[in-house]
Amino acid sequence: MVTVLLDDIGLLVTNDPERDGPLGEVRNAAVLVEGGVLRWVGPATSAPVADSRVGCGGRAVLPGFVDSHAHLVFAGERAEEFTARMSGRPYDAGGIGATVRETRAAPDEVLHARASALVAEMLAGGTTTVEIKSGYGLTVRDEGRSLAVAASLTTETTYLGAHVVPPEYAGRRDDYVDLVRGDMLAACAPAARWVDVFCDRGAFDAEESRAVLTAGIAAGLSARLHANQLGPGPGVRLGVELGAASVDHCTHLTEEDVAALAGSATVATLLPGAEFSTRSPYPDARRLLDAGVTVALATDCNPGSSYTSSMAFCVALAVRDMGMTPAEAVWAATAGGARALLRDDVGVLRPGARADLTVLDAPSYVHLAYRPGVPLVREVWKDGRPVSG
Ligand code: NIG
Ligand code: FE
């Protein structure tokens, strides 16, 4: 198979724990790509001979971002809700109903075109792996077609029938939970890798969340949760107890929550775009990191609480407002996201890993936070091929 050598990399972030430093950095580096996979990584001076060579001009190269939490299957948008929030109206997830109405009314082609445009936007911004949730359909038919759209765009598909109780089930919550863990799960499980529940105030309580998650696990899916976004609650501890790969948001945590996470393999995925767009206090990443918790960063891209597809923006927020160092934030947005998806082939640049990488128009990854809002992603390689730039 044809080999390509990317060399003249000023600073390479590998995230390889066998290398020195928190990011396994290599200066003046090169990587050898064959097919969709990395075959060799190291100093350019000892690089093997390849069929062709691409110079990176001394720039920084990172693993592609791994966005482990995104809601990309929806119709419509909610700019007016955002405007009202910026004038003081609080976020309460009540707007989800508006997106559910528009999503149900949209043809499959529209849902696919919208989600696919967001995936393209993400790729151009350096995101090479994305998780995509259902959750704006909330009927057997509409969750099923949402998962079909998600599965056409990623292998990291998540069934979120338990996003909120839809209006037609008002006063009949138990019936809706039965549907989510029964017929809706049966229709969605073949296209889903993950089961997720919004366990929070105004969404689902601990008992309901447990019922849905255990049914999903019994159907062969792996668990992840939305937890402790809008207030303190049982979600984080439930996730740890059920062995969830990740609990996401983690904005309001007690000492018990932090201790439970620290003693587990569950990742805390922080979603600063949501706090930005809902004008809420940011989660305390420093507290989690100091306790030894594995932290990931993701966009939560959705039309209500966080309509950004930019992992670079999330890195900048995490550094500026959540107490993370630039190195910790970059790790969380790459290797951390991979951990949250139980993947060891992405988020890391070492032989055998996917050849998914991002070339920055900057000498260092620090510029992602140091130059916020600047489009620094110059080129993206996905499966061993350049896809933009
Ligand atoms: O992750 N928290 C629940 N769900 C989304 C918001 C969905 C919406 O407002 O449309 C979230 O923030
Ligand atoms: Fe979310």
From TrEMBL:
Record Pfam families: Amidohydro_1 (PF01979)
Pathway terms, separated by semicolons: Amino-acid degradation; L-histidine degradation into L-glutamate; N-formimidoyl-L-glutamate from L-histidine: step 3/3
Where does this protein come from, organism-wise? Actinopolymorpha singaporensis
GO cellular component terms attached to this protein's record:
cytoplasm
Which residues hold Zn(2+)? H69, H71, H226, D300
User: What is the E.C. number?
Assistant: 3.5.2.7
Q: Where in the cell is it found?
A: Cytoplasm
What NCBIfam families would the database entry show? hutI
- Which lineage do the record's taxonomy fields give for this organism? Bacteria, Bacillati, Actinomycetota, Actinomycetes, Propionibacteriales
Task: Describe the function of this protein.
Answer: Catalyzes the hydrolytic cleavage of the carbon-nitrogen bond in imidazolone-5-propanoate to yield N-formimidoyl-L-glutamate. It is the third step in the universal histidine degradation pathway.
Per the similarity annotation, which family is this?
Answer: Belongs to the metallo-dependent hydrolases superfamily. HutI family.
GO MF annotation: an example? imidazolonepropionase activity
Would you say which domain of life the source belongs to? Bacteria
Cofactor: binding comment: Binds 1 zinc or iron ion per subunit.
Q: Which GO terms describe its biological process?
A: L-histidine catabolic process to glutamate and formamide; L-histidine catabolic process to glutamate and formate
Q: What is this protein called?
A: Imidazolonepropionase
Q: Which UniProt keywords apply?
A: Cytoplasm, Histidine metabolism, Hydrolase, Iron, Metal-binding, Zinc
